[in-house]
């Protein structure tokens, strides 16, 4: 049966450098085109943590160097990350479609996502961006650049920025029109460029929206049947990494909420995925969310693997 599917791509779908990304998106395009080939309408969202951090640091370093390039505001760095990732992704998907003789246009929509300027997240930066650093390097970055650095799920230190919740998608009508006319759309890249609404103006703010929450928002707006969050693990686990680790096949939103309360999911990594999945599955009868790996997406949608979250 044909479904409308929002696919959220994690860090492993894109890598950390332009060279790595250009290579990795070729693989990323395959499971996406598998879903399209089976007749589904597919909308693609993706993260931008490493990329927006890289762009911001590079622009800041260049502006303070002898080159004296203009200072680049943070929201513009977010927009650059959407364009750069979208460019690679749309070309890879276009090529994979053509290789399978599927004639479908692919486009990236530069997407702004409206946030609340009084969101408490602005007072408590939590979203990791950029590269990983040692504790010593992190201290130096705080001293030299004033960055707030935090330990990221046992993987090293990263800069953190505020991560407000998405309220609405400014370009939603454009995205709907494109999807309804059979186009493959890449949208809410990096969670969308965070903006606040002031009268008729949309004003960019220094933040990074979590792509799992933004993907959930656009999936609701588009009345999608499925939210598929693709990451580095095939399934979600309770007691992750412990002796009594248990991989989950199918859970209800009630069970998932209980596991969230018990602290089974790492903040900034698995927690937003499970929270977004629960929100989507609860938003309308029949909606389902699936968390699985990029490689297993095709099997996952057939119900053969992954963690399915239903209400
Ligand atoms: N309970 C859990 N079950 C499975 N994976 C978990 C869990 N808690 C933390 N993780 C880790 O979270 C990672 C996914 O988060 P992350 O790498 O930040 O996501 P993204 O794919 O969006 O970049 C997994 O690869 C895994 O290492
Ligand atoms: N914007 C965002 O959520 O990026 P990551 O998935 O790379 O953290």
UniProtKB/TrEMBL annotation:
<comment type="similarity">
    <text>Belongs to the carbamate kinase family.</text>
</comment>
<keyword id="KW-0808">Transferase</keyword>
<dbReference type="GO" id="GO:0005829">
    <property type="term" value="C:cytosol"/>
</dbReference>
<feature type="domain" description="Aspartate/glutamate/uridylate kinase">
    <location>
        <begin position="4"/>
        <end position="292"/>
    </location>
</feature>
<comment type="pathway">
    <text>Metabolic intermediate metabolism; carbamoyl phosphate degradation; CO(2) and NH(3) from carbamoyl phosphate: step 1/1.</text>
</comment>
<keyword id="KW-0418">Kinase</keyword>
<keyword id="KW-0056">Arginine metabolism</keyword>
<dbReference type="GO" id="GO:0008804">
    <property type="term" value="F:carbamate kinase activity"/>
</dbReference>
<dbReference type="InterPro" id="IPR003964">
    <property type="entry name" value="Carb_kinase"/>
</dbReference>
<protein>
    <recommendedName>
        <fullName>Carbamate kinase</fullName>
    </recommendedName>
</protein>
<dbReference type="Pfam" id="PF00696">
    <property type="entry name" value="AA_kinase"/>
</dbReference>
<dbReference type="InterPro" id="IPR001048">
    <property type="entry name" value="Asp/Glu/Uridylate_kinase"/>
</dbReference>
<dbReference type="GO" id="GO:0019546">
    <property type="term" value="P:L-arginine deiminase pathway"/>
</dbReference>
<dbReference type="InterPro" id="IPR036393">
    <property type="entry name" value="AceGlu_kinase-like_sf"/>
</dbReference>
């Amino acid at each position: 049966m044909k479904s409308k599917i929002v696919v959220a791509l994690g860090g492993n779908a894109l890598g950390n450098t332009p060279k790595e990304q250009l290579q990795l998106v070729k693989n990323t395009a395959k499971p996406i085109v598998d879903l399209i080939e089976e007749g589904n309408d597919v909308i693609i969202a993706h993260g931008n943590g490493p990329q927006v951090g890289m762009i911001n640091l590079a622009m800041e370093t260049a502006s303070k160097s002898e080159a004296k390039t203009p200072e680049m505001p943070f929201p513009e760095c977010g927009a650059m990350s959407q364009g750069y990732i979208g460019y690679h992704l749309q070309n890879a998907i276009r090529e994979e479609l053509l290789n399978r003789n599927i004639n479908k246009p692919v486009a990236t929509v530069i997407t702004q996502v409206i946030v609340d300027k009084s969101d408490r997240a602005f007072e408590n930066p939590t979203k990791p961006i950029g590269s990983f650093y040692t504790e010593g390097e992190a201290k130096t970055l705080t001293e030299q650049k004033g960055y707030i650095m935090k330990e990221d799920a046992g993987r090293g230190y990263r800069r953190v920025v505020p991560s407000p919740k998405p309220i609405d998608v400014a370009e939603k009508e454009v995205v709907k029109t494109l999807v309804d006319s059979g186009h493959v759309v890449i949208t809410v890249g990096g969670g969308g460029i965070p903006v606040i609404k002031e009268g008729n103006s949309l004003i960019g703010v220094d933040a990074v929206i979590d792509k799992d929450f933004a993907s959930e928002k656009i999936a609701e707006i588009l009345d999608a049947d499925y939210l598929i969050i693709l990451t580095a693990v095939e399934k979600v686990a309770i007691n992750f990494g412990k002796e009594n680790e248990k991989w989950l096949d199918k859970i209800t939103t009630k069970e998932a909420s209980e596991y969230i309360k018990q602290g089974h999911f790492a903040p900034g990594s698995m927690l937003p995925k499970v929270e977004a999945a629960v929100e989507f599955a609860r938003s309308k009868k029949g909606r389902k969310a699936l968390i699985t790996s990029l490689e297993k997406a095709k099997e996952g949608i057939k119900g053969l693997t992954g963690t399915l979250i239903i209400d």
